[in-house]
Every structure is written in C-alpha cells, then in structure tokens.
Amino acid sequence: MGTSRADKPPLAVIAAGGTGGHMFPAQALAEELLARGWRVALSTDARGAQYAEGFPPAVERRIVASATFARGGVAAKLLVPFRILGGVVKATLGMVADRPALVAGFGGYPSIPALSAAWLLRVPRLIHEQNAVPGKVNEVFARRVSAFACGIWPTALPFGVEGVHTGNPVRNAVAERAGAPYIPPGDYPMSLLVIGGSQGARILSDVVPQALAALPEALRRHLRVSHQARREDIDRVVAAYEAAGIPAEVALFFNDIPRRLSEAQLVIARAGASTVADLTVIGRPSVLVPLAIAARDHQNANARGLVEAQAAVRIPEGQFTAEVLCEQVSDILTNPKAAAQMAHAALSAGVPDAARRLADLAEHLIAPRSS
Description:
By secondary structure, the chain is α/β, with parallel strands linked by helices. The protein has 15 helices and 13 strands. It has helices at about 20-35, 45-50, 75-95, 110-120, 135-140, 170-175, 195-215, 215-220, 235-245, 255-265, 275-280, 300-310, 320-335, 335-350, 355-370, and strands spanning about 10-15, 40-45, 60-65, 100-105, 125-130, 145-150, 165, 190-195, 225-230, 250, 265-270, 285-290, 310-315. A 7-stranded parallel beta sheet has the order 3-2-1-4-5-6-7, with helices on both faces. Helix 1 links the parallel strand 1 and strand 2. It is elongated, with a radius of gyration of 21 Å. About 50% of the residues are buried.
C-alpha cells in the first residue's frame, strides 16, 4: 500500500542562484531542516548546480532553466524571458506532483522559477536576503512572499515590507568551529587567508602579494598564506609569493575554508555576506575590501557592522594599494592584544544560531496548515 502525501514529512524547496553567496546560506537551511525531519529539494539552474556540491546527499536536485539579462549579446537577452518561462512551467509541474509545504528563495535569477511557481500555487514562501541591500530578484518578490528574512540588520527593504532579522545561516562545517580559540599573532608561524569571490579576486591578487612582500623580514618570515585566486591569475600569484620567500598555497577554490578560517591570525577578503557571517561565527580579525562594482554598493553596507564593532578594517577599493595594506597588516600582526580584541569583537557581531532562527520561521509559516 503506497504512502499518502499527508504521511510524508514536509517538503521544503530551496531556490538559490549560482554563487557561494546564495548557496552557502541555502545549504545551511537545508542542513537544519533535514535535521528536523523535513525533506528538502534544491531548485537551481545548471550553473547553480555546480556550486551545490556541499549540499547533503539527501537533498534532491531540481534543475530548471533560468537566465539573466546581465550576460550575453542581444540575441541571448531576447531569449531570457522564454527561458525563465520554461523554468517556471517546469517548476510548477514539479510542485503540482509533489506539493511542497514551503518554498524558500535565497536570491539570484535561478530562484525565479520556484518562487513564481509557489506564488501561482499559493504555497507558503519566504525570502532570505543575505546582504544589507536586497538584490533585484528578492526585491521583486518582496511583496509576494509570506516572510522576508534579513541576514544583516538593518536591511534596506522596499517600502512597506517588514523584515525579520534571522542573521545569515552558516554551513555546519562553519558552525562546528563557532568561537574556535584564537591564537594571537606572535613570533611563530602565522596563517593569513585571502578570499575574494569569483568577481572580486583579481585586485586581491594584484595587491596582497606586493603588500606582504613589503613587510619587514622579521614579520614576513613567519607568514603562511592561503590565497584564493582566479584561474588566470594563479601562476603570477604563485610567482610573487615565491619571489618574496613567503610559503603560500594558491588555488581557484578551497574546499576547507572553515578550517583555514579557524586557523588564521588574519583574513583579507571582500565583504560578501557569507564571508562576513563566517568571520562573525568563528571570530577572526579581518581587512575587508568591499567590491566597488557590487550592486547598490551592498558590500560596503555588509562590512559596516564588523567595522563599527572594531572587528575589521575596511579599505575602499580606490584606496587599496600595497602600501596601505602593508601598513594595516603590520599594525594587526605586531599587536597581538589588539588582534585578539578584534577576534572577540567579531564574535559579538554575529548571529551564530541564524540557521535555527530561519528554520523556526519556516516552521511558523506552515504551522496553520499542518495543525
């Protein structure tokens, strides 16, 4: 005898775009809901699926067509509405077949089909916005969802939309290292982590090796660097560190960022929402360089909380030179007491239970239907 739909655990469809900034908090919610006995499906496009390797095997992958007006020529842009419409039809048919209890959108064009289908079928739905300034897709759907969860507070919400501050959920691999003891800089090997994201890595590759090479030899000889770089920049970044005599591991992507973050004395990074969240949960000093071309300058807004808490130094991209960075790195690594205070301040700015808060909100939205 078959199992009826009513006998199954509730299904959450999590819709997210193809960047780590969208995928990491989506993964964190998936992990939390699975732990609570939910079934979880990830709705994304083919590009987004490439960023979903960290999702638990129990999460069903649903690949639907989507597109953005930001890439491609005129012909590609003309096809965008038709690709999105095709994705909406496929997502709708999938939800009719196995009606979800909830759809949670995390932004990016690949979240459009699932959120649209949920709106058409009147499925409870929420949005989680990671940044202090909402992205275009989340802004469009802000008035068409049951709840709007905010990763950073305050968030510049559209007029009339009320937000719920949940914080930015972090993956289990980060949460397991929450508040990991910080070893202040000193006269021993010190780890630096350099992470820039897919869009913002080039300027870090241009500036960071030069800045570290300019440090006094007594400080430079203790450095051990993990540097995330674009594929086309890896060879020159490796050569720059070798010329400076600094041991460095340079890679397109590190699968063990949580470990490297917990071992770091200092992090040099862009101010993406997931990076900021990881810094506050683990608690590490940082130098943040907000991406100047970020939509609506949201990375500057993301960094504000850490800067105001005195947990981070913010360097505007226009002022990000080897000389300026060298001075800031030297100030932090030669002052262990101040570095430890920055690490502690980072923890004070975080929301370590954000995944729990977001899952609680999801369960609250379906409570009237499941009671």
